[in-house]
Design goal:
By secondary structure, the protein is mainly alpha-helical. The protein has 3 helices and 2 strands, in the order H-E-E-H-H. It has a domain of about 55 residues. About 35% of the residues lie in helices and about 5% in strands. The chain has a two-stranded antiparallel sheet. It is found in: Nucleus. Its main location: nucleus. This is Fip1 motif-containing protein. Pfam families: Fip1.
């Protein structure tokens, strides 16, 4: 069997992928109330680079809340 045959057979295998559920203290981030976090360390960030320790993809506290609302509406529509 050639390596190209091996590549074709990969689709036939049952591959279990790990699905990452974004959680904070066992709460899904789409359900997380940022106001419930007592210490908001991201508010002390002085640079855009510093805030990426807390928010990904260019989000900050305001834009994350907006995206959270969008995702909550989207998930309700799927149920």
């Amino acid at each position: 069997m050639s390596s190209s045959d091996d590549a074709l057979n990969i689709e036939d295998q049952n591959v279990q992928e790990d699905i990452y559920e974004p959680l904070y203290n066992n709460v899904h981030i789409w359900d997380l109330d940022l106001d419930s976090i007592p210490e908001k360390m991201w508010r002390n960030c002085r640079t855009r680079e510093d805030i990426t320790k807390y928010f990904n993809y260019g989000f900050d506290e305001v834009t994350f809340r907006m995206f959270q609302q969008y995702k909550q509406k989207q998930m309700k529509g799927q149920k």
